[in-house]
Design goal:
about 350 residues; FAD/NAD(P)-binding domain; 8-stranded mixed sheet; D-Amino Acid Oxidase, Chain A, domain 2; elongated; 9 helices; 20 strands
Length: about 350
């Protein structure tokens, strides 16, 4: 018998398992044959504290100390630049203010990233406190913690039926039925489907595809110290990745939940938007992939007990913020389920609550 069942083995589910296993017996069910198969395994792997709306930023800030320091941390220097070609100056000024950037000259910016095209880029914003995030290490640490606390982690466990009877959840997968007092929905793009299966009202979650292309290091440069780049309005972004250079078209195409893959035309259009800002053309794409970033209608995460059934608990709507918010989210889940006062302020807890969609 379990105290808590978690559906979903991405960063939301595995971080929840690590925290909740300190207060009860946990079993995690993941439909795929490995953890972090979908969005969590296809992340851009960056920490941007000023990314997202006010609620998301509160979670970022509440997670930052853990990400920096726990077991040596998972962050390393990256930095971020916004490039402006003179066509969207008011928006550029709004963005550098929102990201707490300072403005530098394009010539100065070229010292950080030598491929910036000075004939095209007119203004640059820079912020140093943006970081690479070691997503694989985070997943491994949370998994190790959950297992050391006695959790069961089952992969290849596609949930086919959920029943709530006599005050307990009964979840069927393959030939097995798992029972628990609490069911945590951390199913990512499939979270609304899990809610329907459980007889709980869905929240209007919408997955959006985001694609990435990996290319050789431009001009054979050492890109390891280059910053995260994007243009005003984020029509593309680029960053170093294991000695290579990854570029995203930054698309947000609404999709039904599926095993996402990149669209060649979308990639080509994104690369065409990127190339005028740099001096090195793209001659070869090594590989492409895509993930689904799933958002609630108000683009804040959904965290907490459902109004219909308080034994159904949401950890969903991470959007593109899952890794950089996961500590604060999983800590809040543990506090709520253990009847402890939340560490987060009341306004943030309320803004995350599933009851806002009731």
């Amino acid at each position: 018998m379990n105290d808590i069942l978690i559906i979903g083995g991405g960063i939301a589910g595995i971080s929840a398992a690590a925290q909740l296993s300190t207060i009860g017996k946990v079993t995690l069910l993941e439909a795929e044959t490995s953890l972090d198969y979908h969005a969590s395994g296809r992340s851009a792997a960056a920490y941007i504290g000023d990314y997202g709306n006010e609620t998301v930023r509160a979670l970022n800030q509440a997670s930052e100390g853990f990400l920096r320091h726990q077991d040596g941390g998972v962050l390393s220097p990256l930095g971020m630049m916004i490039l402006e070609n003179g066509e969207r100056v008011p928006e550029f000024l709004d963005e550098i203010s929102s990201f707490k950037m300072y403005e530098m000259s394009p010539t100065e910016a070229q010292e950080f990233c030598p491929i910036i095209d000075l004939s095209h880029v007119q203004r640059v914003g820079y912020q140093k406190d943006v970081f690479h995030l070691d997503a694989d290490l985070m997943m491994q640490r949370f998994r190790k913690s959950a297992l050391s606390n006695g959790s069961n982690i089952l992969t290849g466990a596609t949930v086919t039926d959920i029943q709530f009877r006599s005050g307990k959840w009964h979840v069927h997968e393959r030939a097995n039925t798992h029972s628990a007092d609490i069911l945590v929905n951390a199913a990512g793009a499939w979270a609304d489907q899990i809610a329907r299966l459980a007889g709980v009202h869905p929240k209007g979650l919408q997955p959006f595809r985001r694609s990435i292309a990996r290319v050789p290091a431009p001009g054979d440069h050492d890109v390891s110290t280059w910053p995260f780049l994007h243009a005003t309005g984020e029509p593309w972004w680029a960053k170093p990745d294991a000695g290579k250079w990854i570029i995203s078209p930054s698309e947000a195409d609404p999709m039904d939940p599926f095993d996402a893959y990149a669209d060649d035309m979308v990639i080509a259009e994104g690369l065409a938007r990127y190339e005028p800002f740099v001096t090195e053309p793209i001659n070869r794409v090594e590989t492409t992939w895509a993930g689904l970033r799933t958002f609630a209608p108000d683009r804040s995460l959904i965290v907490g007990r459902d109004a219909d059934n308080p034994q159904f608990v949401w950890a969903a709507g991470q959007g593109g913020y899952g890794f950089q918010t996961c500590f604060a989210v999983s800590q809040l889940l543990a506090e709520l389920l253990d009847d402890q006062a939340p560490t987060l302020d009341n306004s943030t807890v309320t803004a995350l609550s599933p009851s806002r969609f009731a």
